[in-house]
Amino acid sequence: MAIVLGPNRYGKAETRLVRVVRDGGVHHVKDVNVSTSLSGAMSEAHLTGDNAAVLPTDTQKNTAYALAREHGVGQIEDFALLLARHFTGHDTIHHARVAVEEYGWNRIGDTGHSFARDGGEVRTCVAHHDRDGRASVVSGLTGLVVMNTTGSEFHGFLTDPYTTLEPATDRILATAVDARWRHAGTSADFAASFALVRGCLLEAFAGTHSLSLQQTLYAMGERVLAACPDICEIRLTLPNRHHFPVDLAPFGLDNENEIFYAADRPYGLIEGTVLRDDAPGAGFAWE
Amino acid sequence: MAIVLGPNRYGKAETRLVRVVRDGGVHHVKDVNVSTSLSGAMSEAHLTGDNAAVLPTDTQKNTAYALAREHGVGQIEDFALLLARHFTGHDTIHHARVAVEEYGWNRIGDTGHSFARDGGEVRTCVAHHDRDGRASVVSGLTGLVVMNTTGSEFHGFLTDPYTTLEPATDRILATAVDARWRHAGTSADFAASFALVRGCLLEAFAGTHSLSLQQTLYAMGERVLAACPDICEIRLTLPNRHHFPVDLAPFGLDNENEIFYAADRPYGLIEGTVLRDDAPGAGFAWE
Amino acid sequence: MAIVLGPNRYGKAETRLVRVVRDGGVHHVKDVNVSTSLSGAMSEAHLTGDNAAVLPTDTQKNTAYALAREHGVGQIEDFALLLARHFTGHDTIHHARVAVEEYGWNRIGDTGHSFARDGGEVRTCVAHHDRDGRASVVSGLTGLVVMNTTGSEFHGFLTDPYTTLEPATDRILATAVDARWRHAGTSADFAASFALVRGCLLEAFAGTHSLSLQQTLYAMGERVLAACPDICEIRLTLPNRHHFPVDLAPFGLDNENEIFYAADRPYGLIEGTVLRDDAPGAGFAWE
Amino acid sequence: MAIVLGPNRYGKAETRLVRVVRDGGVHHVKDVNVSTSLSGAMSEAHLTGDNAAVLPTDTQKNTAYALAREHGVGQIEDFALLLARHFTGHDTIHHARVAVEEYGWNRIGDTGHSFARDGGEVRTCVAHHDRDGRASVVSGLTGLVVMNTTGSEFHGFLTDPYTTLEPATDRILATAVDARWRHAGTSADFAASFALVRGCLLEAFAGTHSLSLQQTLYAMGERVLAACPDICEIRLTLPNRHHFPVDLAPFGLDNENEIFYAADRPYGLIEGTVLRDDAPGAGFAWE
């Protein structure tokens, strides 16, 4: 028996990068958060502190800024792939993982250079590239908070001695969508794809008469896959943001699904994958 | 010399209340966070633990829910005033402060009952009411993040031996607007007033060629007061969310205000009040 | 009627500063967060963008670092006073407010240079100094979370039609202490004073059989003032972190104050001041 | 090609449970946060909204409270296993994952029932149990923030055209330890094991003269495995909390590693696994 080094990676997390492109007086903003992780010939660094194979995380940060200047920042998936491919050009770096978050800005006024941040929703991606040229792209979004004030039921569930929940035939269904979808390739039109997926998620959430959040989850995933041939798998994490009707009977008041208490914790948490039955293997895509 | 009880108040903070109004198949959502604080004949409670004068914070929570059912929740200022007035109907409660935050929702799809949360911005208010009928209303917003990618300079400042900052003739100006404005009375059209103030803040931020964030702050406040006769004072807290151009010269690259590092801490913090010189006394409005 | 500039201040918030002092192989760490705010001849900056009177917030940050090197960082109150006094040496700066937070570290191992962060509690202070030599110091702590699992009651309270709370004769009392205390002067032994106050707060919280959180609050404040002649006023903010016994009767189980649900929101919020009846005026101390 | 349901699970997250045990006047507190996730015969729930196989998350919450009352809450690993085993007793539940966080409390005063929260560190575990009786336990801790003020170097690293970092022969090394370790079995003395691991992590962090954070990470993992025969694998996530010496030369001051700026973002992030070469397969332990 011996103690050995297992899987490992190192990188610079959360390099905040804003790029401004000037089209005459009309400016365009790209606001991203870049996290890079490299792995490769790292045994000596761990075992003896010999850093000859280690590309400093400070250099990784510099590289994000420099490549943004040299190549621009288009779709975050393309920028993540560019960075990942770049890093694997080093002999000692066998694999690179690059995650990018993007924050949206909307124009305000007519100055051409004034913007307001677009809420709490964040666009995400994770790209991998290894020295053998294998690559993967997962796109996503997080923080998209949605609610149906009717059209949601929950009954007919399994009961046991610890069950006190009453069946519901009309309840609020609210969640904060965290979705990540895997592309079959690495060269999609990621802007179009993102817009399409986001639209499908909203449509399916709104349009599904829900008998459970699981059913809504599946409908959302199915809608995305049906509409986007390039996407082979989608993973959804949906917290059930409970809204409980307040019991107003002690005050002589009825409450026909009008007044709700929005609870924090605990919360339901529904996680699920929807995929094509002929989806290619995911490899390292989800790591 | 004696040790005595000074100013005090007690209440229920952050009662999360969602109200759904059904107009046939078209639903309307009001999503608020209510915090009530009462003060009055509280000496015995503090000194001897005699709670005869204390309205439990649990009752305050119940009251928020019940009054929402009985009277609806219109503009948050009106609901805050309603609650504050209600509480001062108790003999032992001499003063009530009610703060309400409101979270916005936008419709999605065409179901009439489906919504998505509107970002990070929050509408706020604080209303006071005392047993002598005095009342005040402060409205506000927080979390409105804005940016000008040009049109901002900073130079000609005071220097001393600890100054290393270079003058800037073209910089990014970004901030998260936290604004609160005091109404002269308590019966404004708060919906119209809020929309007008928000518009003024955005217009003045975007439209001001800024020589300092202080100048922008004043311009924002002045614009609001000029447009809103009902408002007599506005207080703005503007963090300077620094965006520093990255030095790419070591990599043989120029950087003409294209690639920025968005910093977290430290940050500038500019706070200021703009008011009418004939504004009535604020009394307890800002407490 | 005219629109005018009211009270204002500007500064650098959250300058993170760590100082290491080497006593041979034994190191000492001071980990602080410094926020400076200046006010004075700021009309032109706001009205015309003329910054001649403005000491850049970047310079304020530099000053915090330089003065830490020149004078060390002893008790945070002394360092805050040093900085505030320094800034008011500028003609255009009439008043300075300096807030400092301190994070504790405990030694680990016997290396003399190894430390672990001491939890969630933070020591705080706010010092003011103006150009006329007036000064004030408020010390404090925040994030001290405490709980009594018995010795707390709450009954005999005011009831109205919205009251459903049952009287409690034995409940958990838990809170996160946020305390700030005003010193009569500016030259106390702040280390000794802090230790004494913290001890009093804990003793009074633990030792008070509580009939309400208000009573506990007063007991905590009174204990501090009785023990610390230098302190003339203390302000306490005590959220009531509710722990509700879970109803296990549906499962055929009793629950004699054994199993609790620790709730997040809403929460009670008790705020109060305890002071000496001959306390000197607070002036700007609490601003 | 068809669209199909992939891996999925559902549960109740963050059930906050506090248990008080009374040993005469001496009370003992257990403060935990329980998250349960179940999977099994969930196709119908996703595809048709038939919930016959679904144990409501509300029931899962009730079960956590009820089993705490029936069996007590000892070591969190044992409680997690108890819950996981319980849930798999249902025919439709094939697998259960239970995560528990524990928050520490220290006694204050001599009342026997008074406590103060122990800082930011959290003890964690994740237990799995399936209907075939397979089980796994991963223990952990998070939020343990440590710092060496010397004894850390970083040089001899790979350089490329984007490298500007200067080699360091004496720097601060600070991190927030996030460690999770896998037990070979499910019946360890988890209290003793936790104390031993925590001690090893601190000793190895303090006692390692570090040439890179990777080297420190490996030393920490190796120390744990060498000391704990029951543990077969440990995973460490170590953010590099950069402390940069401030350049005081512009002010005519030297800075011999005395005054540091503690940075927020970006930060290095070092992740690694240390394991025995004969460790049994992890199965679902890390899921």
UniProtKB/TrEMBL annotation, chains A, B, C, D:
The keyword Oxidoreductase applies. The keyword Oxidoreductase applies. InterPro entries: Uricase. It is an enzyme of class 1 (oxidoreductase). It holds the Pfam family Uricase. Transmembrane segments: none annotated. This is Uricase. Catalyzes the oxidation of uric acid to 5-hydroxyisourate, which is further processed to form (S)-allantoin. Pathway: Purine metabolism; urate degradation; (S)-allantoin from urate: step 1/3. Coiled coil: none annotated. Its EC number is 1.7.3.3. PANTHER family: URICASE. It catalyses: urate + O2 + H2O = 5-hydroxyisourate + H2O2. Keywords: Oxidoreductase, Purine metabolism. Belongs to the uricase family.
